Amino acid sequence: MALVAGGQPPLEDAPSTSTIQPSPLTTKFSEVLKSDYNTMPIQRKTVVYLHAEPQITWKSSEVQQMIIQENLQYAILGKFSYDKPDLHELRKVIPVQCEIKGPCNIGLLENRHVLIRLSLLEDYVKMMSTPAYYLKVHNLYCQMRPLKWNPWFVPEEEPSIAVAWISFPDLPPNFFAREAVFSLASAVGKPLTVDMATQNKTRPSCAKVKVEVDLLAQHPQRIKIRKG
């Protein structure tokens, strides 16, 4: 099993290219996540005082519920390490120059970060697969790096979640089914999509899956497949 980071920074004068993604990606998150989270009311919490300090505790399921209700499943941070254009300009250029297909909401989260709420999984995978965008605003180029947003975002810390391709060489062709390769890939990270050759069954020697992976975690080099 091999792990390969996806995407290269585009050259300024290079012609733009687009990667064809499998059709299941072109769908809104409300159609992907068949869940009752959107209809479950969020309960008001009671403030508890510990050593005279007020505290509120949320369960992981409640945090996930709020993420879904606030349309943050496919939220991305756009980080500007250098000059950051005006927010009004960013709202115009990001959807066009990042080739975002679905509706998106862009707002200022912190001095160097904008929060981009995407509505399509396809847009999320494409942006997370791109190491950096070079946005042209009034004849000036500004670098924006897409990073995964998380509820405990700290501006001074870099998120450790990235998108990478995982390959399974010599995998028997019967395990190329989407459910099978997603099950295998879940040992490393969160499966997002398979490449076109895997989907179209034109490369039976190797299956490839794109996953969200924690770069700081330990990852297995192989996965044992057993017959029950």
Automatic annotation (TrEMBL):
Pfam families: DUF4283 (PF14111). It comes from the Eukaryota. InterPro entries: At4g02000-like (IPR040256), DUF4283 (IPR025558). It comes from Solanum tuberosum. Coiled coil: none annotated. Residues 69-157 form the DUF4283 domain. Residues 1-23 are annotated as: Disordered. This is DUF4283 domain-containing protein.
